[in-house]
Amino acid sequence: KRLFNSTIEASPTFDKLEKRIEVLIENITETLFVDVCRGLFESHKLIFSFLICTSIYRDDGTISQNLWNKLIRGAIALDKTDMPENPLPSVLTDGSWELLYSMEQDFPEMEGLTGHINEHQDDWYEFASLDDPEEYIPGDWADKFTSFKRLILLKCFRPEKLLDAIALYVEKEMGKFFIEFGAVSMEALYKDTNCRTPIIFVLSQGADPTNILLKFAEDFGYREKLELLSLGQGQGIKAEKLISAAKNRGDWVILQNCHLAKSWMPSLEKLVDNFTHGDDHIDENFRLFLTSMPAAYFPVTVLQNGLKLTNEPPRGLRANLRRSYQEISEKKFEDSKKPEVWHKLLFGLNFFHAVVQERRKFGPLGFNIRYEFNDSDLETSQTVLKMFLDDQDEDIPWEAMLFVTGHINYGGRVTDDWDRTCLLSTLRRFYTEDILDDQYKLSDSGAYYCPNLTTLEQYRQFVDELPASDDPEIFGLNENANLTFQIQESETILTTVLSIQPRITSAGSGKSNDEIILEEAQDIAKMIPENLDPVDGAKELFVKESNDLIPSLTTVLLQEIDRFNVLLSVVRTSLEMIQKAIKGQVVMSQELDEMYFAMLANNVPSNWKKVGYPSLKPLMSWVKDLVERVSFMKSWLIDGNPACYWMSGFFFPQGFMTGVLQEFARKHTVAIDKLSFSFEVLKYENTDLHRSPKDGVYIYGLYMEGARWDRD
Question: How do strand 199-203 and strand 226-230 relate by DSSP bridges?
Fold first, then answer.
């Protein structure tokens, strides 16, 4: 209400009602966008822009519900009877081909699309290989694909480009204003506040707004009237007294880490509610600042009545370096006995901090574990660097600097040995005598290097001129790492959009949601195999050994069968129950209701996940994978031990590996705790193996991310 009123008052007036309404709509949209974006994390801002844009077009009918579902859900309840075979399996996944076929079936203007792809495979293969595929579409299809339909096309052929394509789509349809998310200054935020509106900083790992608040209070002349309290056990009463005194005196109060005071949150809710609806006198200069990590128990009314502002580490090397140099004062920059060495190594340290921060975005390719490096690590390392340089008259203690910075300041957070090796190897590129040479490059291409500058402002200008996008080479990674990251980001956008969709009554293709789920449940039920029965197993599997025990691998098989049977029973029973619930024959329980909407979103239902194996696959891919796993177990049970075992097909691979050790230990009478595995990568496929090895086992189904094994 406050935003609407202020926007209406600030908007210019016109004699023509239509013009006035047009300006109001534009200004209200922009005001809401800016206000909401302040409280969103960077990864969610583009999603919000996209939702605003598509909601407008869905409301006026430009984007139909069926077309919207094609983008976020894919092909739903598709009749594949006449679907042609995928001509480009190296480019198009089965899901992508089904989506293209469903587009052809549901939209008359798309008729002949799959046929054209089949007849002009080279053209479409070239399209899938372009750096900017959105600029070119083979044949005369460019005119038939609207801006939104191009997103669906890219989702099929180049999913990694979807993130950039969504940004371009929003810019084209709404303007550049909705894709540029500038930093919000405390001065601008303060103008929108009043004594009855709390300011809420939504925290993320590695970021702390306290210094920003203290600096703003000092600039504003309020440093002496600022009360700061970190919440925790027993701090609630102190916080209430602080607020009570401050609102009468006109002071500012900062309550840190509200997420650590769960039991006090109802009291905070009452306090803020009194600000708005109470009769208490509040000095107009009073301000309440709150900081909290995202928490489900944080009072909703406080969020609704307050101004939200996210505080998170910047994204990108340039943004990280820019922030690092903004935090450095002129005094700190100039205060060194070896200014030239200090300036260069300071740049190297800041660059190292930016690299390890950004390397995390590549997931397991960056670090095996996602570590929360933060500003305190950098500040401590800067202090240590300065101390080492000033205390040594001539020589620079490189090894000592490497040890303290790599093993202690940053390495203190690292728990994985390989991650520690990676961290130290990265640091050696910056803490090296070569960095003092002006010709030394930080990357193979030479795009990144340590400049020889003399003033802090010159370094800031140099940082501003660095590339906007980060080349994977600076992280020591291949371009494929960027590909993986882009695919993950694109998938995250669609998954997030899908997760907040309202419960629609029709999918827009002539079928209701009930009809879609009924059909899907029936199709899955037909695919689910019968439970496995050990009675049907090959006799040699159960021949007891000399110690009167059945073979260890048979025990592993029986344990796997038990787990799969539980999963199959749950899947089969729940599919039967949800069909009855849709027909009104049984009550739609909460579990069935959640299952209903999970299936509608092509996600694996939570009641299946509880008894299932870890998997990130969408629903239909998960079902096919389950059928393949059960088929492998059935083959093992009926035909006896296979020549080669499907390692990733197990419910519990660790149990299988223990079983292999136990088999060897019993055979050779060796204590199992003295055994360990050795590995050999073979030059042939699992289908070429027809006999088990004398000792150990052959396995297949292991994958490498970002690399492949060279069999030669």
Answer: unpaired
Q: Which helix (H) or strand (E) holds 255?
A: strand 252-256
pLDDT mean over 471-482: 84
pLDDT at 507: 45
Count of Cβ atoms closer than 10 Å to residue 156 Cβ = 21
Identify any residues that bridge with 202 across adjacent strands, giving them in sequence order: 292, 310
The vertex-500 CA angle with 174 and 269, nearest 5°, equals: 105
Residue 163 structure tokens: 């993130």
Give the Å distances, CA to CA, from 69 to 66, 142, 648.
Answer: 5, 22, 32
Reduced to 3 states (helix: H, G, I; strand: E, B; else coil), residue 229 is strand
Looking at the predicted structure, is the pLDDT value of residue 195 above 50? yes
> Could you tell me if 54 and 71 are in contact, meaning their C-beta atoms sit under 8 angstroms apart?
no
467 Cβ neighbours under 8 A, 6+ residues apart: 318, 447
The DSSP secondary-structure symbol of 240 reads: H
The pLDDT of residue 575 is 95
Q: Which pLDDT band holds residue 496 (cuts at 50, 70, 90)? A: confident
On whether the CB atoms of residues 133 and 157 are closer than 8 A, the answer is: yes
Q: H or E stretch including 252?
A: strand 252-256
C-alpha dihedral sign at 221, 225, 230, 236: negative
Structure tokens at 67: 């077309």
Q: What are phi and psi of 290, to 5 degrees?
A: -125, 140
Question: For 500-605, where are the alpha helices, taking DSSP H only?
Answer: 513-527, 552-583, 590-600
* Residue-by-residue DSSP string for 620-668: HHHHHHHHHHHHHHHHHHHH-S-SEEEGGG-S-HHHHHHHHHHHHHHHH
CB 473 within 8 A of CB 443: yes
Cβ-Cβ contacts under 8 Å for 313 (sequence gap 6 or more): 204, 206, 207, 320, 323, 357, 374
Q: How many CB atoms lie under 10 A from the CB of residue 483?
A: 16
* Bridge partners of residue 309, in order along the sequence: 201
Q: Are 434 and 344 in contact (CB under 8 A)?
A: no
Place of tokens 């959105």: 134
Burial of 109 (0-12, 13-18, 19+ CB in 10 A): middle
pLDDT at 509: 47
Structure tokens at 349: 């340290």
Q: What is the mean pLDDT of residues 225-247?
A: 87
Which pairs with CB-CB distance under 8 Å and at least 24 residues apart come from 419-423?
Answer: 419/367, 419/368, 419/369, 419/371, 422/367, 423/356
pTM for the predicted model, two decimal places: 0.73
What amino acid occupies position 471? D
pLDDT band per the 50, 70, 90 thresholds, residue 508: very low
CB 484 within 8 A of CB 362: yes
> Within 13 Å and on the Cβ side, how many CA atoms surround 590?
0
Over residues 270-317, the pLDDT tens digits come to 888 888 776 568 888 888 999 998 888 999 888 888 888 887 777 788
Phi and psi dihedrals of 130, rounded to 5?
A: -70, 150
Q: Measure the CA–CA gap between 426 and 420, rounded to whole angstroms.
A: 10
